[in-house]
Design goal:
Length: 190
């Protein structure tokens, strides 16, 4: 039995240009996520899609039932792939994500999606705490500029800081090409 799962977190329409909460690099990250998804499917890995819906009717984005809350076409789930709707930053909180992984005997999870500084950080730390071996594909994740105490933190720096923190003790943090090469799926031509 294959003991690997790919967790696709919140790659939803509102995070793309013309959405309600666009992220820096959302298209490039989704393209890389699609490459990882294709390899996971070919290998027979469990592919689990997480879709955030805001619990508040006054939320800035991901309103329940809206087009913005739908999974982006670049990474749409296939029939039979679980889609878990969540209302919290941590994908394990009040969802059946852990039960789904455990039911399939999963030991290793790979994480792609959005936002690096929120849901990716939370699901990665929680997965590690639950004992899964975790890989985060850093260039298949996206975030946006942040602000703290009057200081602007550009998206690239926020992303790098969170990836560095996760790589310290929570996960192996790899590029798409590194992850595909590890699985023997990257073909290099001269």
């Amino acid at each position: 039995m294959n003991k690997r799962a790919l967790i696709v977190v919140d790659i939803q329409n509102d995070y793309f240009p013309n959405g309600k909460w666009p992220l820096s690099g959302a298209d490039a990250a989704a393209d890389n996520a699609a490459r990882i998804i294709a390899v996971a499917r070919d290998a027979g890995d469990l592919v689990v899609h997480l879709r955030h819906e805001s619990a508040s009717e006054n939320a800035a984005f991901f309103l329940a039932g809206s087009e913005g809350a739908q999974i982006h076409p670049k990474v749409l789930n296939r029939p039979g792939e679980p889609v878990i709707v969540k209302n919290h930053i941590n994908s394990f909180r009040e969802t059946d994500l852990k039960a789904t992984l455990d039911r399939h005997g999963i030991e290793d999870v790979t994480v792609v999606g959005s936002m690096s500084h929120m849901c990716i950080d939370a699901v990665t730390r929680a997965a590690n705490d639950f004992g899964y071996r975790v890989i985060v594909i850093h260039d298949a994740c996206a975030t946006r500029d942040l602000e703290f105490n009057g200081t602007l933190v550009p998206a690239a720096q926020a992303h790098a800081a969170f990836m560095a923190a996760l790589a310290f003790a929570y996960a192996s943090v790899l590029s798409t090409n590194e992850a595909l090469a590890m699985r023997g799926e990257l073909r290099v031509t001269a």
